[in-house]
Amino acid sequence: MEPRPNYITPAGYATLRAEYERLFGTERPALVETISWAAGNGDRSENGDYIYGRKRLREIDRRLGWLSKRMKAAKVVDPARQEDRARAWFGASVTIADEDDQERTLTLVGDDEADAGAGRIGWSAPLARALRGSAVGDLRRVTLPAGEKEYEVVAVAYPAA
C-alpha cells in the first residue's frame, strides 16, 4: 500500500528543506566534532559533553529521517494555480462564521505546515475536511472536541498567481 501523499505548499516544502539542510549541513557536523573531541578526553561514563552530545545526535538523526520521509512523500501544490477558485480546496483562505456571527479566516495547508494560532489548519483536520469543496454561502457542520458546530462559508480566496 502506497502512503497518502503529503500535500504541501511551495513555502512549506521550502521550510522543511531548509530545516533538513541546517541540521544535516551545520548542526550535525559540529556535534560530531564535539563528540569526537569529548571521546578523546578519556572516561566516557562521566563525560557530559560525550553523553549529551550522543543523545542530541540521536535526536537530530531521528528528525532528519522524519524530514526525509515527509519530503519524499511530499506533493507540492501551488494554491495560486488553483483553477476552481469558487470552492475551498488546498491552499484556500476560507472565512467562516459560526452561529454567533464570529468570523475567522483559516487557510487550508499541508499537515506539516499547520499552525492553528496563525490560522493555518492541516488538510486532514476535521474542520478542513468539512470545508473541502465548499463555496460561499454553504453551511458546514463539523464535530469538534467541544461538540458539534455549524459554520457558514463567508468568503473563499486564493493567493494571486
Explain the overall architecture.
This is Transcription elongation factor GreB. Belongs to the GreA/GreB family. GreB subfamily. It comes from Sphingomonas mollis. Residues 6-76 form the Transcription elongation factor GreA/GreB N-terminal domain. Keywords: DNA-binding, Elongation factor, Protein biosynthesis, Transcription, Transcription regulation. The two termini are 35 Å apart. The strands form 2 sheets. Strands 5-4-3-7-6 form a 5-stranded mixed sheet. A two-stranded parallel sheet has the order 1-2. The protein is of the alpha/beta class and 161 residues long. Helix content is 38%, strand content 24%. The protein folds into 2 domains: 6-76, Transcription elongation factor, GreA/GreB, N-terminal domain (Helix Hairpins, Orthogonal Bundle), CATH 1.10.287.180; 79-157, Transcription elongation factor, GreA/GreB, C-terminal domain (Chitinase A, domain 3), CATH 3.10.50.30. The model has no long low-confidence stretch (mean pLDDT 90). The chain has helices at residues 10-39, 48-72, 126-131; strands at 6-8, 74-76, 93-97, 103-109, 120-122, 139-144, 147-157. The protein has 3 helices and 7 strands; from the N terminus they run βααββββαββ. The chain is elongated. A hairpin with a 5-residue loop joins strand 3 (93-97) and strand 4 (103-109).
